[in-house]
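Form 7-S
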Amino acid sequence: MAGPLAELRRFVDAALVSPVPHPRAPEANPVRRRLVVVITLLAGASVMGWALRIAPGDRLFYPATLLLAAVWLIGAFGSGPLRLGRARTRAGGAEGRAVVQSLALAALLLAVFLAGALVVARIPALRTGVEELLDHARFGALGIVLVITLLNGIAEEVFFRGALFAALPERRAVPVSAVVYALAVVPTGIPLLVLAAAVLGLVTGLQRRVTGGVLGPIVTHVCWSSGMLFLLPPVLTLGG
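Output:
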């Protein structure tokens, strides 16, 4: 029987390293895809910066973040066709969907980020920005914030790991899409959010390369973001 480390290595290889065979069809209209992606990036970054600077408790936050999700989705589907992708099963086949792997990755990411939150909680300069972001859930309707979090997670992955990823050269798609995703968050003015976007973008980008589609990144993103929404506040309180 394989030990825990061997199982972990096997999991990482299947989820993030060894691509499932999936021929990448040539783009029917690459110029159009890239043009739509650039326009969407400019619009989305602007809306994101505006939405996350809205004062907590202001009901304008809800339509602003829904508008942001709409921008990403319209840009993604307007750029060209997208795929769900395939993942390896435990038996080694390539006919599975990237759901179980993605749930495990989300749990690992949550563990890492929550451990980091214990450190952030002790550094006021870092904690302040995170607290301001969480105030939207504290002073707003938590159920609505959760729905918006899920919608935006789906929309971001459909755009960044769907449309943007497909518009980039295959060898550079993972790092470039992660960097662009992080840069899109810069207008929020929250350094730790930019760092989180870079890490999440790298992990979901590797998933996208392995599976050839957006389903895996979507599941990882929405499970991680919803977990952070509920678990980060008590962890910050504990760390403080």
